Amino acid sequence: MNNEAKKNEYLEKYSDSKDSIDESEREALRIPVDKIINSETKKERKEKARSYIIIGVILFLSVIVLMILTRRYVKKQKKPKKSSSKP
């Protein structure tokens, strides 16, 4: 009887210790994985922001070039054309 009680006591201690060790190992593995995930997320955000900035600059420059070309075209249209025939 005493032997059976000791077995159960040690089995319970073993189970508690094993569960504690397993949880510690999982936590120890989770920390580096979380760091990697966070760094990758930050990289993706930076790349996305950089892409948006580049697209914005390209659109802005396109609008500026379009405005310049439009103004030149309008100025050319407003200039009176010299007629080649003289009376």
Précis, in short:
This protein is mostly helical and 87 residues long.
Helix content: over 70%
Number of helices: 1
Q: What pattern of helices and strands is seen along the backbone?
A: H
The backbone outline, from C-alpha atoms, is: rod-shaped
Query: What is the CA–CA distance across the termini?
Result: 135 Å
Query: Mean pLDDT, rounded to whole units?
Result: 89
- DSSP strand count: 0
Sheet with the most strands, sense and barrel status: none
Strand content: under 5%
Low-confidence stretches: none
Backbone CA Rg? 38 Å
Q: Give the class from helix and strand content and strand pairing.
A: mainly alpha
Question: Main attributes?
Answer:
mainly alpha
Structural commentary:
This protein has 87 residues and is mostly helical. The protein contains one helix and no strands. The radius of gyration is 38 Å and the shape is rod-shaped. The relative contact order is 0.04.
